[in-house]
Amino acid sequence: MAGTVSEVLGQVAATGSAARLLSLSGLFAVYKPKGPTSAEVLNRLKEKLLAEAGIPKPGKKSKKQILKIGHGGTLDSAAAGVLVVGIGRGTKMLGSMLSGSKKYTAVGELGRATDTLDATGKVTEEKPYDQITKGDLESVLQKFVGSIMQVPPLYSALKKDGERLSTLMKKGKAVEAKPARPVTVYGLSLQHFQLPLFTLDVECGGGFYVRSLVSDIGKELSSCAKVQELTRTKQGAFTLEEHALHEDKWTIDEIAQSLEPCVSLIPTEPSLKKLKTEHAEECAVSCEDK
């Protein structure tokens, strides 16, 4: 990017789309497909918005970001679904997304375990599962509702000495499991059962790992299990069906329309001129991925 952030803002100030983009503040949701990390999806969104506004992409060495944007809770790269995004002053509201309730639909596979606890990892164990009935599974689920203790997966965004556990694992370094911690499951129901697969609807609080849940269910059934597919269907007030914007709707107008319902949640805003200055001077929210 040629010139300082202030110079670039001056160059694009005359364009209505740039001014409109820099005035956006609030929370909205996008659809994260299976494959990319949450950070990669966020970067793609940011690139599309800057391109539409005619704002040059910041250089790699630039410490200042023109557009302030971040997400409110990592979704595994192998998972799909709702990813809540904060833009402008809305980034200050993302903390509530981390601790708020979430809903997932998970397809588990009995009889096989992996090091990542999902379909992307290496198989570490195989056990019989033919003896397990639908009644057995429904009975076991009751043990995982309410306030429970859960051990986070080794492949996660949790850190040791400032580095993610998943990164350390990929480097082949020895990693000890984090101690069990309290988490909350508000609802857990079996939607489909056909060995070796089963489908769960899960509503949980912050810090909960569906991968660990499925693994623990397998152990309770004297077998083992992993997540085959995972979709986040709700995060906070944002649902997959009603709010998640697919990539073809990642436009300034579509996002502005999506922001309208949460305008009342935004702190009292300064003047537009001051808001643009904040956007130019503050760095984008950092995002972690599992």
UniProtKB/TrEMBL annotation:
PANTHER family cross-referenced by the UniProt entry: PSEUDOURIDYLATE SYNTHASE TRUB1, TRNA-PSEUDOURIDINE SYNTHASE
Family to which the UniProt record says this protein belongs: Belongs to the pseudouridine synthase TruB family.
Protein's gene: TRUB1
GO annotation, biological process: mRNA processing; mRNA pseudouridine synthesis; positive regulation of pre-miRNA processing; tRNA modification
Domain of life, per lineage: Eukaryota
A UniProt-annotated Pfam family: TruB_N
Chief localisation class: cytoplasm
Organism: Sphenodon punctatus
Catalytic reactions on record: a uridine in tRNA = a pseudouridine in tRNA; a uridine in mRNA = a pseudouridine in mRNA; uridine(55) in tRNA = pseudouridine(55) in tRNA
Entry GO CC: cytosol; nucleus
GO-annotated molecular function: pre-miRNA binding; tRNA pseudouridine(55) synthase activity
EC number(s) from the headed UniProt entry: 5.4.99.25
Lineage of the organism: Eukaryota, Metazoa, Chordata, Craniata, Vertebrata
Keywords linked to the UniProt accession: Acetylation, Cytoplasm, Isomerase, mRNA processing, Nucleus, tRNA processing
The protein's name: Pseudouridylate synthase TRUB1
Localization: Cytoplasm, Cytosol; Nucleus
InterPro entries recorded: PsdUridine_synth_cat_dom_sf, PsdUridine_synth_N, tRNA_psdUridine_synth_TruB
Role of this protein: Pseudouridine synthase that catalyzes pseudouridylation of mRNAs and tRNAs. Mediates pseudouridylation of mRNAs with the consensus sequence 5'-GUUCNANNC-3', harboring a stem-loop structure. Constitutes the major pseudouridine synthase acting on mRNAs. Also catalyzes pseudouridylation of some tRNAs, including synthesis of pseudouridine(55) from uracil-55, in the psi GC loop of a subset of tRNAs. Promotes the processing of pri-let-7 microRNAs (pri-miRNAs) independently of its RNA pseudouridylate synthase activity.
Enzyme class: isomerase
NCBIfam families: TruB
Domain Pseudouridine synthase II N-terminal: 64-210
